[in-house]
Specification:
Blueprint (H helix, E strand, L loop, with lengths): L1 E6 L7 H9 L4 E6 L9 H9 L5 E4 L9 H13 L3 E4 L4 E2 L3 H34 L9 H12 L5 H8 L3 H9 L6 H4 L6
Parallel strand pairs: 1-2, 1-3, 3-4
Antiparallel strand pairs: 4-5
């Protein structure tokens, strides 16, 4: 069993987590100090995940040591499961080496999936309302598109320079220029040329 411990600030102590993980039977404990659970930049967690082999068990003292969002936790646990790695969280009593632990994990995964579906539904509903109201107003007015085309075709300006001039994102200019084939072959192919 491999353990993972994390504290958010360098002032916090990992000792309590180490003790619990060793008592749970972990023979190796990876730890990140001063790393937030909201960020995925946790070098020791990444090292621990690479070290896990099929049949191993990853143990944490609490679920929030791995991450802050249900979605992030579920994705990580599903990834471990696909690799044949078991998981235990000592505080929450989740242990995917047991039938009841797998049930608990599936309940959490189902809640996360329901959350994703609700977000999708709200997004679709919002898009439908926006479309019914005519959608978002275009960032470039028709005369701006004409000018952008002139700058690209006659003055051979880069897409970036044109975007900067109109204070829009490069992709807005590319979309406007693509209709007449002026964005450039590399942009159409999905690679940048200028």
């Amino acid at each position: 069993m491999l353990g993972y411990a994390r504290v958010s600030t360098v002032d916090q102590n990992l000792e309590g987590q180490y003790k619990q993980l060793i008592e749970a039977g972990c023979y190796d404990v990876y730890s990140d100090k001063g790393r937030s659970g909201a960020t995925m930049s946790r070098p020791k967690l990444e090292q621990c995940l690479r070290a896990l082999q099929p049949g191993n068990t990853l143990v944490v003292t609490k679920l929030d040591r791995l991450g802050r969002t249900v979605r992030g936790l579920v994705e990580l646990l599903e990834s471990l499961n696909e690799r044949g790695v078991k998981f235990r969280s000592l505080t929450e009593g989740i242990d995917t080496t047991t039938p009841s632990g797998r049930l608990m994990f599936n309940v959490i995964a189902s809640v996360a999936e329901m959350e994703r579906e609700l977000i999708r539904e709200r997004t679709r509903a919002g898009l439908a309302v926006a479309t019914g109201k005519g959608g978002r107003p275009p960032r470039l007015q028709p005369h701006d598109v004409v000018e952008a085309r002139r700058l690209r075709e006659k003055e051979k300006q880069t897409v970036e320079a044109i975007a900067k001039r109109f204070k829009v994102h490069r992709s807005t200019i590319i979309r406007a220029l693509r209709t007449d084939g002026l964005a450039g072959a590399a942009y159409k192919a999905g690679t940048r040329s200028d």
